[in-house]
Structures are given as structure tokens and as C-alpha cells.
Amino acid sequence: MDTIITIGSHSSLQILHGAKKEGFKTIQITPENRVKFYSQFPFIDKVIGYRNEDEAVNYINKYTDNGILIPHGSLVEYIGSERVKKISTKIFGNRNLFEWEANQRKKMSLLKMSNIPTPMDFESPEDVDRMVIVKLPGAKGGRGYFVAKNKSEVKEGLNKLLSAKLIKSINEVIIQEYVIGVPMYFQFFYSPILNRLEITGIDIRYETNVDGLRRLPFNLNIEPTFVVVGNLPAVARESLLPKVFDYGMSFVNTIKERVPPGMIGPFCLESVVKDSGEIAVFEFSGRIVAGTNLYINGSPYSWLYWDEPMSVGRRIGREIKLALNENRLNEVLT
């Protein structure tokens, strides 16, 4: 296994840059209209353009013998969950988590099993008695999410989603209490090879138009939207880190028990820090998140573990290299 492959989107540049730093061959499989863009980077050995999603899967499966596919948030969203099941090339990480990530209720159940504080959720619009945020399934970067002050606004928003065919049923969404505080997305890496959990960075999502609206001194009566367009770096008060680490470790233990073979590599606990110092985790991502793109040369936290530039993309490459050297590759691939 000497070749790292990924889909051209999300965090693919840092994944392939990191893989090349660790001595691997690199292949980018991307929509045809992005080939020119990705071809300019010298650390990508080969860029393959695909015309449709089935063709993308066929290209990935050509590297079954010597390739490792690195998943990110765009893999299932672009290729589709049913096609991803047809990928025979080994995947870094736990591919069994994809099914859990696609279902908001199943995602939240893993956090609750981990005894991690989460916002209150509501089974039905009729139960809503406070301000809530309604979230769609999958890695949509906040697209389609909306805030509602009461149950009538929830019903109205759900009808709009159904009319726009963004959902097929209201059972696909999760209705969650809107927690007031600072959103902080805590990035982790669990290493089966080193048997340790690392905090790799923290980011804040920059969302439109909710972040644009709060810069205005007056109310335009515009409904806020939450489409992620970028990420901002953050460093937490050090006194918060032990609690954050405990949540991460508890989550790792739950995944090991409930979703074998367990957590492998990067994940993120997407949280709100309240003024009391309490942390509510409203979602998780079970793979590399785009907020790690802030730290191509390493984050303040990754330097503490490695004392060298270590992006999460490179950290993935390092884990694969360590596994190869110890003949334990089966522990990091599924």
C-alpha cells in the first residue's frame, strides 16, 4: 500500500500534501471541471477527472491492491451512500461510521451513550417550547438549517424543506434546542497504533448569512442561514481542555463498543461553550473536518504532540506509515 487517494473537495489538498510529506504517492479523483485547478499542485502525482459518480467509484476501485482512500465530508455527499458501499479499495478509518453520520438521530445517540452533555432535542414539532435549530441529515455544511422560535415556525420551515425536496420526510431532521454561547469545534485524532487521543486543533465556522447579519447595527428582518463558507482559528482557555479531552475519550470508548472496529483517526466534537464554562456538544463528525484546513503547518496543539509541522492530513499519513512499519495496517483500514 503505497498510494493515497481522495476525492477533490473539502480537505483534499492538506490530505495529499500530508501524504506526500510522509512519502506516499498521491492521486486526486475529482469532477472534470476541477482537474485544471488540482493539477497545479506539485504534491499531487496524478489528477483523474470523472464525469459522473459511478465513474468516480470505478476509478477508486482500480487501486484496490495498492491504494488507500482517505474519506472526508464530501465523499458520501458527492458520491452517495449506496455507491460508497461499492468501494472495494481500503478506506482509512471506520467506514461503518458513515451510516451513523447520515442519520442525525443515530449521531446524537452516540453522544448520549458517551454521557456527553447535548442540547435538548424534540421528537415532534408539537413538543417545541423554546428556540430551536432544525438540522438536515448528512454533511451539508449547514445548508437548509433554520432557527425557529416556536412550534408553528418549525412546522412552517419543515413544509418549506419538503416543498423544496431537501428532505423526503420530517423524520430525517433533528429538532434541537438552540444553545447560546460560543461555537467551538474541537478536533481530535485517535491513534490505534500509539493508543492515544490527540487534540489536533479548534475552529469556529464562518457561516452566511448569520455571521454577516450580526455585523449590522439594525435588524433587517432577514431569516438567518447557516451555510459554512470558511473557518476561523481558535484556542480555548487551557482550563477547558481536560473536560474536552474527557469527552473525546468517552466518545472513543463508545465507538469502540457500538461501531466496531472503533474510532480510527480524525473526528470532531462540534460544541457550544456557555458563559458558565459548560460545554454542550450538538453534533460530531467521524472523519477529518474542513476546519483542519486552517492548520496546514500544524496547530498550537499539534506542535505540543509532535514538535514539528503536523496537519491532520499529514497526521493521517503518519499513522498509515507507522502501521505499515509495525505490520499493523489492518488496524487502521476498513
Break the fold down into its secondary structure elements and pairings:
Blueprint: E1 3-7, H1 12-21, E2 25-31, H2 35-38, E3 46-50, H3 53-61, E4 67-69, H4 73-79, H5 81-84, E5 90-91, H6 97-101, H7 104-113, E6 121-122, E7 132-135, E8 146-148, H8 151-163, E9 174-177, E10 182-191, E11 196-209, H9 210-213, E12 226-233, H10 241-258, E13 265-273, E14 279-285, H11 300-306, H12 312-325
Parallel strand pairs: 1-2, 1-4, 2-3, 4-5
Antiparallel strand pairs: 6-9, 7-8, 7-9, 10-11, 10-13, 11-12, 13-14
Keyphrases for this structure?
alpha/beta, five-stranded antiparallel beta sheet, 334 residues, five-stranded parallel beta sheet, 14 strands
Low-confidence blocks of residues: none
Quick check: average pLDDT?
A: 91
| Total beta strands | 14
Sheet with the most strands, sense and barrel status: 5 strands, parallel
Q: Which sequence of strands runs across the widest sheet?
A: 3-2-1-4-5
Estimate the strand proportion. 15-25%
| Helix segment tally | 12
H/E element string?
Answer: EHEHEHEHHEHHEEEHEEEHEHEEHH
Q: Tell the overall outline.
A: globular
Percent range of helical residues = 25-40%
Q: What would you report as the Rg, rounded to the nearest angstrom?
A: 20 Å
Q: Note the gap between the termini.
A: 14 Å
Structural class: alpha/beta
